[in-house]
């Protein structure tokens, strides 16, 4: 059934990329309802869900009676249609930077996905590669160095202030704490503290749901010397 006009429906898995949208809905004070799905279970492969999100991924959203997938696209569309202070419209001096950071969120996402697969999804040690774990953690830290530097310069990613890209990237910073020491990356821990102090973040964190994916505070890469 279609969500009422104005009410955004979000298909969400706690701690997953759908948290970006949940956080944004709280930041922008957009009326919404949440359908919580199960990361390890069958709900992401249910034909009804695949009709909305063809790869069976979260987030998906229903906005004004139409469904959408891809967190970056959803943040952009919500910014454009109902949260303009968080948008940088075509013609805005920061338009290009806004787009760069919005998509850079998935550069972070690809390393997070590798690390999540290695440490959490693959359950047996023989399936995992300590080399990949170390390499991906190193690459994640390198990608996040650019975030720390920009946030240090501007407070937020863009000089004019907080926007949707801080939510897109901020989710990555928040989750990266499970794999890298963010206090070792200049500017990053302070940026994380600013992000998590926001009432929008705190409301979303309270609404997120049970912690089922990143159940440990930190996932250390094992020693890869022969045993
Ligand atoms: N680029 C997509 C990635 C979505 C994605 O891969 N989401 C993960 C959770 S973080 C997922 O649904 N994984 C389920 C699976 O791989 O089966 C986005 O940003 O929305």
What's the gist of this structure?
The chain is of the alpha+beta class. 48% of the residues lie in helices and 8% in strands. The protein has helices spanning 18-27, 47-50, 71-82, 95-121, 130-154, 164-176, 188-196, 199-207, and strands at residues 8-12, 32-36, 60-63, 66-69.
Textual characterization of the structure:
This protein has two domains: 8-86, Glutaredoxin (3-Layer(aba) Sandwich); 95-207, Glutathione S-transferase Yfyf (Class Pi), Chain A, domain 2. It is of the alpha+beta class. The longest helix has 27 residues, at 95-121. The chain has eight helices and four strands; from the N terminus they run E-H-E-H-E-E-H-H-H-H-H-H. Helix 1 (18-27) packs across helix 6, helix 4 runs parallel beside helix 6 (164-176) and helix 6 packs across helix 7 (188-196). A hairpin with a 2-residue loop joins strand 3 and strand 4. A four-stranded mixed beta sheet has the order 2-1-3-4, covered by helices on one side. Glutathione is lined by residues 16-17, 44, 56-59, 70-72, 106.
């Amino acid at each position: 059934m279609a969500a009422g006009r104005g009410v955004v429906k979000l298909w969400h898995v706690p701690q997953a990329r759908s948290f970006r949208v949940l956080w944004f809905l709280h930041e922008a004070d957009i009326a919404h309802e949440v359908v919580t799905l199960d990361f390890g279970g069958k709900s992401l492969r249910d034909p009804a869900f695949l009709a909305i999100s063809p790869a069976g991924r979260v987030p998906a959203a229903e906005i004004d009676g139409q469904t959408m997938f891809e967190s970056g696209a959803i943040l952009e569309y919500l910014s454009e249609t109902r949260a303009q202070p968080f948008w940088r419209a075509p013609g805005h001096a920061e338009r290009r930077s806004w787009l760069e950071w919005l998509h850079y969120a998935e550069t972070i996402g690809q390393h997070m996905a590798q690390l999540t697969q290695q440490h959490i999804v693959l359950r047996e040690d023989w399936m995992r590669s300590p080399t990949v774990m170390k390499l991906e953690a190193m690459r994640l830290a390198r990608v996040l160095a650019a975030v720390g530097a920009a946030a240090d310069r501007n407070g937020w990613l863009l000089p004019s202030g907080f926007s949707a890209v801080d939510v897109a990237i901020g989710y990555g910073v928040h989750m990266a704490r499970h794999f890298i020491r963010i206090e070792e990356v200049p500017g990053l821990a302070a940026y994380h503290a600013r992000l998590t102090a926001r009432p929008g973040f705190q409301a979303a964190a309270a609404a997120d749901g049970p912690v089922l994916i990143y159940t440990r505070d930190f996932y250390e890469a094992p020693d890869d010397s022969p045993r």
